[in-house]
Amino acid sequence: MLKEIQSSDIFVDQLICGSHGMAACEAMSFGKPVLCYLMPELFESGLPSECPIVNTNPSNLEENLIRLITDGKLRQETGLKSRLYVEKYHNADNIAQELVSLFKNSLNS
């Protein structure tokens, strides 16, 4: 699967569920633009506003795909933002440090 994602230009994730999955994170780690439906509640509950996922649902899928397919610069910029986003928010070392900190705080409480 990772080879397929790596060889793609654009990754389409979940268009109805309202949240992205691990496959979207994998695609972003390869610097791919990701199209996925993100429900507004995700942003209200803490999803960073800088999330580069192109918010897409079945009614605007064609429009968003055409825009990314025909605009190579946009595709490249979105892919770069995707990689940087994953490095910042899904970095295993950072997440491990946050978990250690949470555990230490809960033990000290």
Q: Describe it for me?
A:
The chain has 109 residues and is mainly α. The protein is 59% helix and 6% strand. It is built from six helices and three strands, in the order αβαβαβααα. The chain has helices spanning 2-7, 22-29, 40-44, 61-70, 72-89, 92-108, and strands at residues 11-12, 34-36, 54-55. A three-stranded parallel beta sheet has the order 1-2-3, with helices on both faces. Strand 1, helix 2 and strand 2 (34-36) form a beta-alpha-beta unit. Helix 2 packs across helix 5. The longest helix is centred in the C-terminal third of the chain and has 18 residues, at 72-89. The chain is globular, with a radius of gyration of 16 Å. The relative contact order is 0.15. The model has no long low-confidence stretch (mean pLDDT 94).
Rg of Cα set: 16 Å
Topology pattern, helix = H, strand = E? HEHEHEHHH
Order of strands side by side in the largest beta sheet?
1-2-3
Low-confidence stretches: none
Specify the structural class.
mainly alpha
Distance between the first and last residues' Cα: 43 Å
- Output mean pLDDT: 94
Strand content: 5-15%
What is the global morphology?
A: globular
Task: Give the beta-strand count.
Answer: 3
Summarize the amount of helix as a percent range.
55-70%
Number of helices: 6
The biggest beta sheet reads: 3 strands, parallel
